Amino acid sequence: MKDILFTRLLLWKKKRYSMLFWLILPAVGTYLFITTVSTIQDDSKIPIGVVIEDDSILADQLLKSIQNSPLVHAMTLSEEIAISELEKHELDSVFVIHEGYEKAILDGKRNDVISSYRTDLSLAYSPVKEMIVSLVQEESGRSKAAHFIQNMAAKYGSETTWSWDEINKKSKEVQVDENLLNTAFTYSEIELVSEEPSIFTWSTWEIWAILSLLSTLFLTDWVIRERQMSVAIRYSFFKFSQMNLYVKLLLLYLVLFLLFDLLSIGIFVIFMNETISISFLFELVSFRIMLCLLSFSIAQCFRKVGSYYSFTFMLTLILGIISGAVIPIQGIVPEQGIVTLLNPIHAFINGEITILWNVISIVLVILYLVRKETTNIA
Amino acid sequence: MLKIDSVTKNYDKKCVLQDLSFTVRTGEIIGLVGENGAGKSTLLRLLATIDKPSGGTITLHHLSFDKDRNTIRKSIGYVPQDIAIWEELTVKENMQFFERLSFKSKSLNELRNLCVEMNLHKWDEPVKALSGGMKRKLNIAITLIHDPEVLLLDEPTVGIDLKSKKEIGSYLRSQAKEKNRMIIYTSHDMDEIKELCDRVINIGEDKFYQELLQKSGKEIISI
Q1: β B63-64/A114-118 pair status
Q2: Tens digit of pLDDT for each residue in A273-316?
Q3: Over the stretch B31-58, which tens digit does the pLDDT of each residue have?
Q4: Which of A145, A347, B52, B191 would you call most buried, defined as having the most Cβ atoms within 10 angstroms of its Cβ?
Q5: Where do the domains of chain A lie?
């Protein structure tokens, strides 16, 4: 193995820049893609200003609820700056949470707790206002219920007492459990895909899987290149058999890829707040083994690198689409079926260990190597 | 002794070599001549074990090319017509690359001496910057890393200057005489063949080369 490593290092040294590009592409490409998309999504949110005059828990909770909305980008500002920004049309509208907001809500009063500013160009004012009003109503209803429960407990001398926070928390649980309006349409005999309507978001590891597929296929072009080169004739006069040589080369490339996968994990954990579990590491390793073996098998089918690259792009594009990693197609491609079965990256992006395609890839590689070993002719 | 006995090679239905028999003794240089397509390169590929004969047997000291191929390969050095080296590596890196994967280990000094013996002094120069003659010399030097007993050269001096040709010729002669290598050599350069080879084998039906070489006093076998 030391000899194989030495000879590969000699070759890798000469094309270090292109190799490095393809090796770091999955990590860096995913990071850039996700951050760019997040920035674009943030930019497409409606910019609003929130002025907080009431320094209270409820006012803070309302602000957080507004900020958590996927439709608006809420900035807390002073009233003077907010109005100035509104005049410059940097903000769509401004909402002021007045002093005494918490007291008014706790007392069940809902009038004049919030006021707003808008201009003629505040195109999204109405839906944003409705959203904030509904959030205030939600809060006031919840606090009214909390007060009622606390009063009843005091009046009847209940041994159990609940804090406002406990009642508030329970209220939110009930709201989720007994959602008043929950509509889902499905075709008969087809399992419901998702119960929660959500804005489409890109998964870090799905994008990484697609880019890893592309980079692994591209870095496996050495199989075709070396076979086409005149030095290939010398492979028959090496101390290693062809099978031995290729198995060792595959192992070497696998280790190289795994090292850069660790780099990907590091980048995603540090910069993208991804969490990694032990089971995920197994999924990742099984996925990486499959990618190496499958790329090697595919490369064996091509004589020209040009046609191999074209195939590589097409395959990556098709798998990217049918996996739903790039385009939201959930519900169009059935969860279970021939399409998912034929998709080698499906298991990984669904959080499973890649078994089927590892078996297929191993069989393909063994068949090739055994054939090569039995003929043993250049 | 290398013995070729009734060897035939067919590609599909086309017969390229038919009933070929001859022997090569230790320290002997054999020249293979013949028109293009006569089967010289095919014969070298059979002797290099990278192709199999359709009929007949080849043996090296009673070891069969068919049954003991992996053992025989350790004794074979094949210099293909195309220059089989890494263009992007230096001379030193090429020698190191093939030494690491070779049947025999050699020190860096030994590798360098191998090049120096062939008048290849540009040790740290990238191969792509070398002349054709230098590349041809490196092509041969790499083949000699594992000290093969049989050296097969397919037009090793094609397209290079006269000085390099003479240097390669003189080096091959020393290899045959001093290291007792069996050398089989193909070329279209009759002066080179006359100067270098102990015996000449004319492959094919064309007698042009045979007539050309008869005056030189070499032993010419037509097959």
Answers
A1: unpaired
A2: 888 889 999 999 999 999 999 999 999 889 899 999 999 999 99
A3: 888 888 778 888 888 998 888 888 888 8
A4: A347
A5: 2-37+200-375, 45-161
Residue B143 corresponds to which tokens in the numbers above?
């083949």
Q: Does B84 touch chain A (CB under 8 A)?
A: yes
Q: Do A10 and B146 lie within an 8 Å CB cutoff? A: no
ipTM of the shown complex? 0.81
- Give, rounded to a whole angstrom, the gap between the first and last alpha carbons of chain B: 19
Coil, helix or strand for B145?
Answer: coil
SS (H, E, C) chain B: CEEEEEEEEEECCEEEEEEEEEEECCCCEEEEECCCCCCHHHHHHHHCCCCCCCEEEEEECCEECCCCHHHHHCCEEEECCCCCCCCCCEHHHHHHHHHHCCCCCCCHHHHHHHHHHCCCCCCCCEHHHCCHHHHHHHHHHHHCCCCCCEEEEECCCCCCCHHHHHHHHHHHHHHHHHHCCEEEEECCCHHHHHHHCCEEEECCCCCHHHHHHHCCCCEEEEC
Are the CB atoms for B183 and B44 separated by under 8 Å?
no
**Residues with Cβ within 8 Å of residue A105, at least 6 apart in sequence:** A58, A113, A136, A139, A140, A143
Q: Which residues of B touch A231 (CB under 8 A)?
A: 84-86
State how far the Cα of A4 lies from the Cα of A184, in Å rounded to an integer.
58
How far is A164 from A143, CA to CA, in rounded Å?
8
A197 pLDDT band (50/70/90 cuts)? very low
Q: What is the pLDDT of residues A354-378, one digit of tens each?
A: 888 999 999 998 888 887 766 555 4
Superfamily of domain A45-161: abc type-2 transporter like domain (3.40.1710.10)
Of B51, B85, B100, the CB nearest to A6: B100
Are residues B50 and A378, on separate chains, in Cβ contact within 8 Å? yes
Q: Tell me which amino acid residue B191 is.
A: D
Q: Does A18 touch chain B (CB under 8 A)?
A: no
- Kindly state the average pLDDT of the residues A250-257: 93
Could you tell me the fold of the domain covering B2-222? Answer: Rossmann fold (3.40.50)
Partner A contacted by B78 (CB < 8 A): yes
Do residues A231 and B86 lie in contact, with contact meaning Cβ atoms separated by under 8 Å? yes
